[in-house]
Amino acid sequence: MNEEKVSMLELYGENLTKKKYITNPAIARETEIEKTLLILLMPEKSAILIGKAGIGKTAIIEGISYKIQNKDVPEAIKNFEIIKINTSSLLGTSTNDGNEELKLQLLLNELKDKENIILFIDEIHTLVTASKKEGGVDFINMLKPGLDRGTIKIVGATTTDEYSRYLITDKAFLRRFEKVEVSEPNQETTVKILLGSYPKIEAQTGVKLAYSKFIIENIMKFIVNMTSEYKRIYELGSRYPDNSLSLLSKAFSYAKFDNSEYVTFKHFYKALMNCQSVYPDVIKKEKEVFITTFKEYIEKENVDLNDY
Fold this sequence. Notes:
The chain has 308 residues and is an alpha/beta fold. It is built from 15 helices and 8 strands. The strands form 2 sheets. Strands 1-3-6-7-2-8 form a 6-stranded mixed beta sheet. The chain has a two-stranded antiparallel ribbon with strand order 4-5.
């Protein structure tokens, strides 16, 4: 009796079009989303998102998934599903029907019978280069029939450096992929991203940010300014909006650790003092700015700054 066939898409994929989105995951990324959709509508073409680490490349494909859920895409895309593939899990072999086969080959076999699929492959350079070494399976060329039919599309993502190092010399890859440059958002846009994203963090943590819109906006502006380019630890390479979102999330984590229903200025202060993405002298300077800017609220909440 044969073993039941394993679905690579189910085992190593996440259906982003079935994911629950609390808020729009791609705030202020309409231009990049439109460029990506236009490429996907081109015959025999797929898209690759290129940009520095931490700037929200994954958020763009989640934004397209969000639009598909809301029927806010061209008719040709409305019935597509977006499957995010875990690239590292696809390398190596798997036992299927009692036979040991390359996981990539199993995925390719499964895709032959699939339609209206957009594969999202983060760090796509890893899969493209490693697939050629593992038994000679050229992932992109093996997908050629599905790509030519237009029933299979790919959105890849990689950093600018990795694109230049691994993919720019791959002629087969370049024939099939149009690039979408994803730039780091500026401070004003990053504030908008934080303001649009905190309800999602509230839902994830069960902790609320119960201040007025004015105070919340000033908190977000402080966080964004504290994590600006020349204040960051260079080696970490984290950029807007990722580094700002991380600091915001840390404040929520401190509130949850205290079993608090609400994030308070105590929790923001603790997050500030324990921020690991900026230089120590930045923390010292920003501490004074924080105390001055939010003095009224710190005193009202009776925050003992000497405890941290």
